[in-house]
Design brief:
6 helices; two-stranded antiparallel ribbon; about 30% helix
Protein backbone atom coordinates (compact mmCIF):
# COMPACT_ATOMS: atom_id res chain seq x y z
CA UNK A 1 0.00 0.00 0.00
CA UNK A 2 2.94 2.32 0.67
CA UNK A 3 6.60 2.32 -0.22
CA UNK A 4 9.64 4.45 0.38
CA UNK A 5 10.83 6.76 -2.41
CA UNK A 6 13.99 8.91 -2.64
CA UNK A 7 13.58 12.17 -4.54
CA UNK A 8 15.89 12.52 -7.51
CA UNK A 9 17.46 15.65 -8.97
CA UNK A 10 14.87 18.21 -10.16
CA UNK A 11 11.96 16.27 -8.66
CA UNK A 12 9.29 17.86 -6.51
CA UNK A 13 6.08 16.61 -4.95
CA UNK A 14 4.14 17.50 -8.11
CA UNK A 15 6.21 15.18 -10.29
CA UNK A 16 6.20 12.39 -7.68
CA UNK A 17 2.41 12.72 -7.27
CA UNK A 18 1.97 12.36 -11.01
CA UNK A 19 4.31 9.35 -11.13
CA UNK A 20 2.37 7.57 -8.37
CA UNK A 21 -1.08 8.70 -9.49
CA UNK A 22 -1.79 10.56 -6.28
CA UNK A 23 -2.06 14.18 -5.15
CA UNK A 24 0.47 16.58 -3.68
CA UNK A 25 -1.83 17.00 -0.67
CA UNK A 26 -1.78 13.23 -0.06
CA UNK A 27 2.03 13.19 -0.19
CA UNK A 28 2.18 16.16 2.17
CA UNK A 29 -0.24 14.54 4.60
CA UNK A 30 1.41 11.11 4.80
CA UNK A 31 4.88 12.65 5.09
CA UNK A 32 3.99 15.55 7.42
CA UNK A 33 5.35 18.07 4.91
CA UNK A 34 3.91 21.51 5.57
CA UNK A 35 6.07 23.61 3.27
CA UNK A 36 6.74 22.56 -0.31
CA UNK A 37 10.06 24.40 -0.35
CA UNK A 38 11.32 21.97 2.34
CA UNK A 39 11.41 19.15 -0.23
CA UNK A 40 14.95 18.43 -1.42
CA UNK A 41 16.84 16.05 -3.69
CA UNK A 42 17.73 12.85 -1.83
CA UNK A 43 14.90 13.25 0.65
CA UNK A 44 13.15 9.97 1.42
CA UNK A 45 9.36 10.08 1.46
CA UNK A 46 6.53 7.57 1.73
CA UNK A 47 4.39 7.18 -1.39
CA UNK A 48 1.14 5.28 -1.85
CA UNK A 49 1.29 2.42 -4.30
CA UNK A 50 -1.65 1.50 -6.45
CA UNK A 51 -3.21 -1.80 -5.67
CA UNK A 52 -5.89 -2.83 -8.11
CA UNK A 53 -6.74 -5.72 -5.78
CA UNK A 54 -8.18 -3.53 -3.04
CA UNK A 55 -9.78 -0.60 -4.89
CA UNK A 56 -11.82 0.40 -7.86
CA UNK A 57 -11.26 3.78 -9.45
CA UNK A 58 -13.79 6.47 -10.19
CA UNK A 59 -13.26 9.53 -12.37
CA UNK A 60 -15.15 12.53 -11.00
CA UNK A 61 -17.75 14.04 -13.29
CA UNK A 62 -19.16 17.59 -13.35
CA UNK A 63 -21.57 18.05 -10.43
CA UNK A 64 -20.29 15.11 -8.36
CA UNK A 65 -19.77 15.42 -4.62
CA UNK A 66 -18.13 13.04 -2.17
CA UNK A 67 -21.54 12.41 -0.61
CA UNK A 68 -23.15 11.55 -3.97
CA UNK A 69 -20.28 9.22 -4.92
CA UNK A 70 -20.39 7.53 -1.50
CA UNK A 71 -24.14 7.04 -1.84
CA UNK A 72 -23.73 5.62 -5.38
CA UNK A 73 -21.22 3.01 -4.12
CA UNK A 74 -22.92 2.49 -0.73
CA UNK A 75 -19.83 3.43 1.28
CA UNK A 76 -19.18 5.73 4.21
CA UNK A 77 -18.43 9.28 2.92
CA UNK A 78 -15.79 9.79 5.62
CA UNK A 79 -13.98 6.62 4.51
CA UNK A 80 -14.14 7.75 0.87
CA UNK A 81 -12.70 11.15 1.78
CA UNK A 82 -9.96 9.74 4.03
CA UNK A 83 -8.91 7.08 1.51
CA UNK A 84 -8.32 9.84 -1.01
CA UNK A 85 -6.52 12.26 1.32
CA UNK A 86 -9.50 14.60 1.40
CA UNK A 87 -11.77 16.22 3.94
CA UNK A 88 -15.53 15.96 3.43
CA UNK A 89 -15.70 19.67 2.62
CA UNK A 90 -12.91 19.57 0.03
CA UNK A 91 -13.70 20.47 -3.55
CA UNK A 92 -13.46 17.63 -6.04
CA UNK A 93 -13.09 18.45 -9.69
CA UNK A 94 -13.97 16.78 -13.00
CA UNK A 95 -11.45 14.17 -14.19
CA UNK A 96 -10.03 13.75 -10.67
CA UNK A 97 -9.48 10.05 -9.96
CA UNK A 98 -10.72 8.65 -6.65
CA UNK A 99 -10.12 5.32 -4.96
CA UNK A 100 -13.34 3.42 -4.27
CA UNK A 101 -13.13 0.58 -1.72
CA UNK A 102 -14.01 -2.86 -3.06
CA UNK A 103 -16.47 -5.18 -1.39
CA UNK A 104 -14.92 -8.00 0.59
CA UNK A 105 -12.28 -5.85 2.31
CA UNK A 106 -12.16 -3.90 5.56
CA UNK A 107 -10.23 -0.64 5.70
CA UNK A 108 -8.63 1.19 8.59
CA UNK A 109 -6.85 4.53 8.64
CA UNK A 110 -4.24 4.62 11.38
CA UNK A 111 -4.24 7.15 14.19
CA UNK A 112 -1.32 8.55 16.14
CA UNK A 113 -0.07 5.93 18.62
CA UNK A 114 -1.63 2.87 16.95
CA UNK A 115 0.29 -0.37 17.43
CA UNK A 116 0.32 -3.40 15.15
CA UNK A 117 -1.42 -5.53 17.78
CA UNK A 118 -4.22 -2.96 18.18
CA UNK A 119 -4.80 -2.72 14.43
CA UNK A 120 -4.81 -6.51 14.01
CA UNK A 121 -7.47 -6.69 16.75
CA UNK A 122 -9.58 -4.06 14.94
CA UNK A 123 -9.64 -6.37 11.93
CA UNK A 124 -10.15 -9.48 14.10
CA UNK A 125 -7.27 -11.02 12.17
CA UNK A 126 -3.90 -12.59 12.89
CA UNK A 127 -0.47 -11.08 12.33
CA UNK A 128 0.54 -13.34 9.41
CA UNK A 129 -2.65 -12.76 7.42
CA UNK A 130 -2.60 -9.03 8.14
CA UNK A 131 1.07 -8.62 7.18
CA UNK A 132 0.42 -10.52 3.95
CA UNK A 133 -2.36 -8.07 2.97
CA UNK A 134 -0.28 -5.00 3.90
CA UNK A 135 3.25 -5.37 2.55
CA UNK A 136 4.56 -2.18 4.16
CA UNK A 137 3.23 -0.93 7.46
CA UNK A 138 4.54 2.33 8.91
CA UNK A 139 1.76 2.96 11.44
CA UNK A 140 2.06 6.65 10.74
CA UNK A 141 -1.14 8.58 11.37
CA UNK A 142 -3.23 8.48 8.22
CA UNK A 143 -1.91 5.22 6.72
CA UNK A 144 -4.59 3.17 5.01
CA UNK A 145 -4.49 -0.51 5.95
CA UNK A 146 -6.56 -3.30 4.41
CA UNK A 147 -7.84 -6.68 5.52
CA UNK A 148 -9.69 -9.23 3.41
CA UNK A 149 -12.97 -10.18 5.08
Amino acid sequence: MFESYRLEKNEDLYSVAKKYNTTVKTLQDINNIYFLDAVREGMEIVVPTESKDYFNYYVVEQGDSLYAIARRYNINPELLASMNGLNLEDYIYPNQQLLIPKNGYSYYITAEGDTLDEVVKVFNSNNDKFLNENKTIYLMAGQLLVNKK
